[in-house]
Structures are given as C-alpha cells and as structure tokens.
Design brief:
single chain, alpha+beta, 2 helices, globular
Length: about 130
C-alpha cells in the first residue's frame, strides 16, 4: 500500500498572510468506531478556517482523518480532538469543524467545534442590493 494512516499533519506557508480569506473543505468519508458497540460511525466533516501563517496540506489531512477508522470515539470527543490538532498545527485566525454523523438509532448528530485567536474578529458581512 503506497500510503498509510498517520497522526501527523503537514503544513505549507499561507500565500496571502496580509488578508483574511476562508478555506472550506468537505471530507465526506470520515469513519470511526462507536466506543460502546464497536460498530462503524460515518460522518461528513466540514472544515472552515481563516489561515494565519500556515495552511494544512491536503494529503496529510486525508491520512490523518484515515487514522480514526479503527478507533473508538464518541462524536463530541473526536470532533474536538480533530479541531484541537488542527489548531495546534496551523494556529489559524479562526477554525470551525462541523461533524455531521449519519443516522444511528434514529438520531442524526452534528457536532460543531470552533477555535479563534484572541481578539480576531471577522469582517462584517457584505450585503449587496
């Protein structure tokens, strides 16, 4: 197999540090295991961040997400763990990770974790006529 799961995230320099802009990624193939039953849990991860000095490299993110496939984790815990690791690695101005888990026992679960640098404020929304 040419690649394997890893817990390491790689970065590259933000090409536009002088301005705020948003990076949005959708990761539709996230899986982990239910810590109670051992059955697989499936989710789509929606990652949004405003980079500061670093951006996350996509292949390393894919391999990082893959590392959860055989781990038992509650939805709330795994969402916050991933958000914490992304924050430690990139130190973005703002980060939001939404984990939309597929139905389990008739219940859909979405967990949203946000991180922001102290003092950072988003630009006011633009309303066009």
């Amino acid at each position: 197999m040419p690649s394997a799961p890893t817990t390491e995230l790689e970065t590259f320099p933000n090409p536009a540090t002088e301005r705020d802009y948003t990076v949005r990624m959708q990761i539709p193939e996230f899986t982990c295991l239910c810590p109670k039953t051992g059955q697989p849990d499936f989710a789509t991860l929606d990652l949004e961040f405003v980079p500061d000095r670093l951006c996350v490299e996509l292949k390393s993110l894919k391999l990082y997400v893959w590392s959860f496939r055989d781990r038992g984790a509650f939805h709330e815990a795994v969402t916050n763990e991933i958000a914490d690791q992304l924050e430690r690695t990139m130190r973005p101005r703002f980060l939001r990770l939404s984990a939309r888990f597929n139905v389990r026992g008739g219940i859909y679960t979405t967990v949203v974790a946000e991180r922001r640098q102290p003092g950072w404020q988003p630009a006011p929304p633009v309303v066009l006529p």
